[in-house]
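Subject: Sanity check before I submit

Could someone independently write out the structure tokens for this chain? I want to compare against mine line by line before I put it in a report. The sequence has 396 residues.
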Amino acid sequence: MRSYRELFRTPEFTPFFLAASAQTVAQTMGGLALGTLVYRATESPLLSAVSMFGSSLVQVLGATFLLSAADRLPPRAALTALPLLFAAATAALALPGLPVWALFVIVLAKGLVESVGGGVRWGLLNEILSKDGYLLGRSVFNMMSGLMQIAGYATGGALVALLSPRVSLLAAAALYVVAAAVVRLGLTRRPPRTTGRPSVAATWRANALLWSSAPRRQAYLALWIPNGLIVGCESLYVSYAHESAGTLFACAALGMLAGDVLVGRLVPARLRPRLGFPLLLLLAVPYVPFLLHPQLPLAAAAVTLASVGFGASLVQQERLVALTPDALTGHALGLHSAGMLTMQGVAAALAGSVAQLTSPAVAMTAMATVSTGVTLSLMAVGRREERAVAPVAREA
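---
Independent answer below. Compare away.
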């Protein structure tokens, strides 16, 4: 599969794509509204960051106890039920007078459910397109995510400014309902990819099997840590530039879109593996000068450039899918999604804590510096292993 036209001619891809688009807009609108609501109530960068990305913190619990469900649930039924649950949770966040602690309970419960959703969604994408089309399909989803985030942050920012954060949350809840309807009407009924009942023991066995391979471990670490640390930077946009946070989020989405087009469509397949680590460095380095607290135009340019580096995830995902047995594809991609989101939540909490003690600009620079160091370390480990394997390959 080599073209976007072929993708959209594939049966079920279009409704699957449209449902995910509606869900992405709902998620971004809801996140910005909630972050603004919490910041106005508390004036705390930490609580604002955690409200936007805190649902990711419990993804590790889902990956530990629930992820076997990703391959053991009927995909259409699961992907219909999940947005309806998200709609109910988002509508509950809009209730007037809800205490801050109750907001966080809802956010964390939503994150626990989301930990299974990623595995179901990306496992189904791999079924619809097969492994040879997965990278192109995922790049289109990432591009859609960038565009829908731009739309979501722009719309959410306008609703927050002109009306209120609660109105934006209610609009997000309505979009979740639309996503559920599109899935139910547009996808066919499929059996689960794996037989048996979901269980903690099955989740642990599959996690142990996936983690037992050194190449898969390296792919997971590259997908989780540098990316997560930079999302920690993004979690501080509201406290860094309160009135212009929507602009920075939109610029980040625009840069991510450019990176996905570059990696998914323009770079030849033989060159893609070489871009993984350079793109991770690009993801972090433009945030280092935030220590100087650049004005909005320079900050927006730096954010856009850095976000091109999110294209590295496509390189690592392609490698992960190639290294994973078909029966575990949903679980493996769910583990990637849950681990990535968990790291993003941890990084958001860490960045918010540093910002609370220093300033958002200092915290953003610190997170970018650590991300750069982690990427350089992963590069060094990868090169050592390549040198160790090369003599064995020559002897064979």
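---
OP: Matches mine. For the report I'm noting this point. The chain has 17 helices and no strands.
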